[in-house]
Structure formats: C-alpha cells, structure tokens
Amino acid sequence: MSKQKGKKKKGFKHWVGKAHLWLGLASGLIVLLLSVTGCIYVFSQEINGAIRKDEIYVPKVKETRLPVSKLWNETQKTLGDSIIINRVDVFNNPEKSVRFFCYKGATEKNSVFYFRNIDYYYTVYTDPYTGKVLGIYDEKKDFFNIIKMLHWSLLLETEIGQPVVGWATFIFVIMLITGIILWWPKNKAARKQRFKFQWKDSTQWRRKNYDIHNILGFYISTIAAIIAFTGMVWAFTWFQAIVYVAGSQSLTPPEVKREQSVFLEKSDKDAAFDTAIQTSMERHSTADAFGVSKAADSTGVISAYIQQHEGTYYVNHQLQFDQYTGRLLNERLHDEKNFGEKLITANYDIHVGAILGIPGKIIAFIASFISGLLPITGFLIWWGRKNKKAKHAKAKK
Known about the structure:
Shape: elongated
Order of helices and strands: HHHHHEEEEHHHHHHEEEEHHH
Low-confidence stretches: none
Largest sheet: 8 strands, antiparallel
Distance between the termini: 27 Å
C-alpha cells in the first residue's frame, strides 16, 4: 500500500511534455534548416535589387521604348537557339529594364535532386530603349534560389522534399501548442514572472537557456504559427483546400475561364503581342509590372499577369489575348475573386511578411530567427537534464 501511495500519477502535462520532447527531437534539424533559410530569404528581393542594380535600371531613360516583340527577338538572338525565352516582365517604371525568363526542366527526371532536374534557368535584363542586353544571371546556381529550394523541398524533387518539409512544419505547429501548454503558469503570480527575463549575475547558463526557449518561444508563437500555416498551404493540397473553403465559405472551386485563339494563317503575331502588352498597360496604368507569356500552341492565348504593387503579389489581375490579333478575350480582376482565392493569392506575401512591407519582413525575420533557436535551446535543455539524471544515478551507486 505504501509503495502505491508513493507513486505519483502522471498527469496531462507529463504526456504533453513527452510529445513535445520526442516530436522536437524528430523534427528539430529540419525546423532549424527551414528557419535559417527563411531568415536568409526574407530580404532576397532587396539584396538582389542592390546586387543587380546596374542591370535592373537602365543607364539612360529615353522618350520612346522599342516594341517588346523586337526586344524579345533581339534578346533571343543573343541567347542563341539552346536557351528559349518563356516570359517577359515589363515595368511601368521608365527607369527599369525589361526582364526575360528562360526556364526548361529536364526532359527525363532521372534524379531526386533539384540540380539534376533543371536543364537551364536564366534571367536576362534588356534595355527597353536600345535593345542592349544588360546582364544574364544563371538562377539555377544563384545563392538565393538555392536557399529558396532548400526551404521549399530540401533541394530534392518537389514531390519528395515538400511532404518532408510539410510534415516537419506540421509538427512544429504542434510543438508551439504543446510548448505553450507546458509554459502556461497555474496562477497570476507565476504568470507575471514568466513574461520577462529576470536574470541575476548568479543566474547559470542553463537557466538562461531555459528562459530563452520558453519566453521567446511564447512571444513569437503566433507569428511563427502563421508562417508555418502559410508554408503548409504549399506543401499539402488538402490544407490549401481547407484554407480556401474557410475563406470562401464554399466547397465549389473558382471557375477560371480558358479562352482559345482563332487560328489565322496570315497574321502578324509580333504586332498582336505588342498590342496585348499595350492594352494591359493602358487598362492597368497604375500597376507595377506586367508578366506576359506567348501562346503555347496554335489555339493558345497570350497570357498577361498584372502585378499591382511593387514587391508584393497579393493584388494581381489576369488577362488573355488572341495570339493572332491581340484582341482581349478575357480579364479577371483581383476584386472579382472571392476571399478564399484572395487568401491563397496572398499566401506568399503573408509567409515572408511582405504584406506589411519592410516592418512585416523584419517581424518575419525575427520570428524565423527565434524559431531556429527553439530546436537548439530545446536540445540543450534535454541534454542537460539527461546528463543530470545520469550523474545523479551514478552518484547513488
């Protein structure tokens, strides 16, 4: 009877603590990698903008620009036949160059690794006034693109790497919830002490490490959860569907109309392409950028993606044009989308904090940095307790 009385019943927090520990040990390295790469990538636009300043901005602004079709053709000649342009970005800012994208995936995917599944990926900057190519960047080997793909799928094929990233992120959300349950004090008096650091000169490093893990983890938990949830939108189609349904209040997916061009044997496709770009710029004169792609086949359309604001993507419009005449076939404005669509569209900007501008990016950076500290400080807590128990057991012997 005395032995049974001596045993303490293991309560709810005990099992929460066990889940927190083992899930943390299982996902810690991936969470650390995602946090570090997230920190680095947050300001990639600003850093690349500074590095590529001489290519992004033209040497001299002139009165008239060359037709985009001519810029496309001349740039294609410079690249040769082995590299094909897929898309062009035209900017409203007269000081900016025209940006061409060239991408081709491997014809046969015979590897699980990212680098082996891309034939080429280039960004080319061309002066819209002279047609001169200002710079060519190999994005396949670009530092920030490698960081992005590490963050996206651990530099593995998306179908393999993204589920790993997604489930590690899912576990991280559980870690945040279980961490708050473990941290949450029993009464108001104890709660006051847990919201701030109360270190003295005599406070040992283990206590400091414990406080860093708990207090900083609590303060960034909401932002970290938002970042994690937006990451899961890309990783899992079922989670994206949940977000869409929650936002739209509908189980019916949005209807996106796909137009077709009417085949004309005799037509000036270059003139039609320029007309499509001109129409896009006239209809959205306040937009920042216009991403335009040529038709994929004889019945395909010219597709235009209108980015309303510089540096963010959550407000955008889509236009479709006949490839033979440049006639506008369909336009889908941002305001026509339901809230579920708008949530999905804003996912990237929320994920990196760009939806709140530079302050939002700073918040995302700090939250990602602290998220990276959590696996490290948590491991040190576990390691310290493990060694303490081992020493205690040894001393008893």
